[in-house]
Structure formats: structure tokens, C-alpha cells
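pinging the channel bc i need a second pair of eyes. not urgent but kinda urgent?? the chain im working w is below, pasted from the shared doc
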Amino acid sequence: MESIKFAINETPYACWDWELQKKNLEFLESIDPDYFSYIVKINSENLEGDDKQKAAISLRLAYSHGLETFFALICSLVQAPYCTIGWMINYKTAELVNVVRKITSRTPLLSRFRETPVTWQLLATLIHGNLGSATGKSEWIKKGFEKLWLQFAKDFTDENFSFEYNSLKHGLRARFGGFHFYVGHEDTPGVLAPPEKMMCLCSSEFGTSYYCRENFIPDNKVNFRPRRHSRNWSPLNLANGLLLLSMSIENTLSFLRILNGAPPEKCKFSNPITEDQFELPWKESLGADNFNLDFDIEKSQVTPLSKQDIIDSYTAS
């Protein structure tokens, strides 16, 4: 009987099985990083056609999916390098976000590494230690992945980014398409400035608009309101991000497989051809990418309802 002790953020676990090492390696070999480059291939072709918004949303969903996959793998490397299967079938999203934030901020965390603090630089160097050494590209490859993962972490831990992803994956409760924001001086109060006097602050054909719950009464989760949110993004940026996520997932998987007994010659590592390709997921600038405008609601404007008030409403005549 095999057992491995590990933590997910700060929650302890013990994983037991008769064939734990074998199952862990089978689990690692079952994950296909090429899925994310496949999503790029089939959707990039449709960004100019009638289904361009659907293609763009597919890229947006895959990008968040890819981020979670990558960060779950690399955080399992930090906390449970010999039990990825146990770490990944138990983690909760909030725990994963917390571990990613700790790595970004260099905050101490429960880790199987001797080096402290655990940083993106440490992880990129560890995973890509020999990549590019034969061609003299080793340093910019390691530095490129370090900066790339730091930017990925900023996206993954952005609350607005998560709100949008949740609105898409849970019930597809978002309107497709970006927003345009113009400002201009009113020559006559109450009369909009003419279009030629408006200044565009941000504009995108692609993005989403959706609602999030807002608790406008402190310490009261029963009474809430839906608040409007909008986000702009570039599908080209997302496509480039997905290609780099595919590489990052592949390299992390290969490193984990080697740690768990797989022959190194059967484990593939990939990197961009040139250093500037690490910047492509953020090449297209959209100006402001997040917009949140709605009427305010004050606690004094409502009479809060209790839980019992709501339950009683189902039996009231």
C-alpha cells in the first residue's frame, strides 16, 4: 500500500492506493496539451465570418480553461510533485487562486521545494533548465516563461476576469460583443456632444457584457442586486496566449512525468522560436478593458427581507 502526504494551499491530505505511482503517471499521460492549440486552429479560421463572435467566445473560454489547467499542474508540482492526481482531484478554485497569489507575491507557502520563496523565476528555471542550452537560447527561454507566467497569473487572479469566465461557463449568461466608450463636452447641458467632438477612450468588436451579484448591504447575503459589467478583449491575443499555454502545460507535464519515472527521451519540451513571441498575448492594446457602470443602491432605499420573509412568500395566499 502506497501513501503520499501533501497540502492544497494549507489543507492537509493523505492519498492511499495499491498502485499510486502507476496511477499518477497514467493521470499525467492522459492530459493532452495539444487540445488548446487545436482550439486556436479551428476557431481562428472563423474570426472573419458570420460566426466570428462564437469563435471569439470559444477562444475566451479555452483561455481561462487553459490557465486553470496550467496553474493546477504547476501548483501540484510545488505542493505534491509525486501526487498530481491527488492534488488535482481535490483542489478548489479558491485554493488554487491563493497558491498562485502566494507564488506571485513571494509569500511563504507549504512546498516540497527546499528553495524559498517559491517564485515564477524558480519554477521557469527548474522546468526549462536544459531547454535551449545547445543553441545558446537557454537564458531568454527561462526568462521568457518566467515573465509569461507572471502575466498569466495576473489574468487568472483578476476578479473581473473570473466574473466573466463564470458568466460564460455557467449558463452562458453573457452577451457576446465588445463595448465602445466615448466622451465629449456638452455645449448645451443635457444635449449629447456631436460625434465629431467625441473622443474614443476604448473600443473593441469583441468582448462580453454580463451581470454579477452585488451585496449592497454589509454582512447580508440574502439581499443583493445584479450589477452590469462589460469587458473588451482581443481574440488574437487570446489565440497567442493559448499557444503559449499549450507549451507551458506540455513542459510542466513533461517535467512531472520525468519526476515520476517516465523516460526523459519520451517527454517533449517546447518553446517559442523567437523571444518576442512571449509578448504576443498582450500585443493588441484596447485601452480600458473593463467597464462597470450602473445606478447605485443605498441601504436606506430598501427594506431588507429576512430568510423567513422569503420562505413565507411561498405559502402566502
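so The longest helix spans residues 52-79. and The chain has a mean pLDDT of 91. — does that match what u expected or am i reading it wrong
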